[in-house]
Specification:
Blueprint: H1 2-5, H2 23-52, H3 54-76, H4 83-112, H5 117-153, H6 156-188
Length: about 200
């Protein structure tokens, strides 16, 4: 009641629209959004594989590990996945892909400059890291602001979105920098490394 009265304007409220969502409809929407998330993940994996070839396959493996880690963390904490939480997970998958794309594009530049595959991998990661770090830190700051304002206003949906997105971003930084880098370094020590067109 205090929140409703605070900042109230001396204008009568006119009801324009009213909606009720029962448990069945909410469950149906949540299930559809989870299916949409998996379809989106599948399309991202397909794009990464077709466009980036072998690094795309490795990034896809890294993304699958990422999704497994995120879901495991949600189970451990535990996090209740609402529609906004599922949206945050899908958004964080996009951010994880973005990190891989930055790394791969830098690697391509280094390969074009005539460097070996291993040195291209190392330089690609080193030169892409500042952009990845800055993008993810700004997202984490936005998550903190969303959480703080949602806490003050009692908007639990926004709080859930902020927490879920923050977890996803932190795990995506780990997966892009640690898992993808390790997989690429492993491949660079095999015979496949001679086929730089892959």
């Amino acid at each position: 009641a205090l929140k409703l009265e605070a900042g109230r304007l001396p204008i009568p409220i006119e009801l324009i629209q009213e909606r009720d969502v029962d448990a069945i409809l909410g469950k149906d929407s949540l299930e559809k959004s989870v299916v949409a998330g998996f379809v989106g993940l599948g399309l991202v994996l397909l794009f990464m594989t077709l466009y980036y070839r072998l690094p795309g396959v490795l990034a896809s493996v890294s993304l699958l590990i990422y999704v497994g880690l995120v879901l495991a963390i949600f189970k451990i904490i535990p996090v209740t996945l609402t529609l906004s939480g599922v949206a945050a997970v899908i958004l964080s998958v996009g951010m994880a892909v973005d990190a891989n794309i930055l790394i791969f594009e830098r690697m391509k530049e280094e390969l074009r400059a005539g460097r070996t595959l291993l040195s291209s991998i190392n330089l690609g990661f080193d030169r892409a890291w500042p952009a990845i770090r800055d993008g993810n830190v700004s997202t984490l700051i936005t998550c903190a602001i969303l959480y703080w304002f949602a806490d003050r206003l009692g908007a639990t949906i926004v709080q859930g979105f902020a927490i879920t997105l923050a977890i996803g971003v932190l795990v995506s930084m780990f997966s892009a920098i640690t898992i993808t880098r390790t997989l690429l370094r492993l491949v660079s020590t095999t015979g496949v490394s001679r086929r730089t067109n892959w």
